[in-house]
Write the structure tokens for this entry.
Amino acid sequence: MKCKLELGNGKDILFWQDTWCMVRPLKEVFQDLFRFVDNGLGTVDNLWCQVRDEGEWRLNFRRNPYDWEVDSMRRLEGLLKDFSVLPDRSDSRTWVLDPKCGFSVRSCYRSLQANSQEEFPADSVWRSIPPSKVTFTMWAACLLKLPTIDSLKRRGIVLANRCEMCGVTEETCNHLFLHYKVASELWAFVAYSFNISWCIPQSVEQLLFMWPKVKLPAKGRKLWLMIPHAVIWTIWKTRNDVIFKGETRQFDKIILFFKGLIFHWSRSLDWASRYRFEDFVFSWESLLKSM
Ligand SMILES: [Zn+2]
């Protein structure tokens, strides 16, 4: 991450994965386009077509961009105009933190200390109350590393990508957890329950950056901070039950599972210990008002 890659012949630089033409890898900056690239692990020279002294970029996508992806595609094409592959020169790396002397553990450690709070919403991921399998799932969802169909395809598994939950589009992590119909209904239920208005963000990572900033009474705060984990775990469990056990996805059942999680996780909170499971199921709204 702290290495600056200087483009030469492009044989040692992964086009989407490495940081070479921007300050972040292209797969992060152009997440929408990365979903339908043909080969997410291709090197830069794979996508460059050299004819004598001239060359041009030949990006490989599995389909044409949809209307809402055209702007991103233009931005990427505009960006690439400033770069060209130099067939006679090898790619090189410079240690950004100390270009003169090169890599040292000291410079690496200092930079990790300085940046650890900014780049990843770690505090929001590793909450103490939800079980570790849930926090791990949240961590993987943030980094787009859960085995959703798009992710499996990027790892080279040959699969048709159709979201099993809605059947209308491709399955990606952010679609599944934020934008697919039942997920957005679950988020709407949460917003209604806590009487807040908000826009569903683009990614799970963005969600975790903004979630602690929503204004709520101090008393319910610990419960509030667990909500994203409960929603993500509910949807992931439902999705896996649909795919692997052939179960149906009824919204009532999804809400019940979600409330069950909140009930179990809230046992350690003083105010919640006086409520029974039935209160969470049948008196949800009045219970939240009593916080
Ligand atoms: Zn879907």
Summary: Residues 163, 165-166, 169, 175, 180 surround zinc ion (CB under 6 Å). The mean pLDDT is 87. The first strand starts at residue 3 and ends at 6. Residues 221-245 form the longest helix (25 residues).
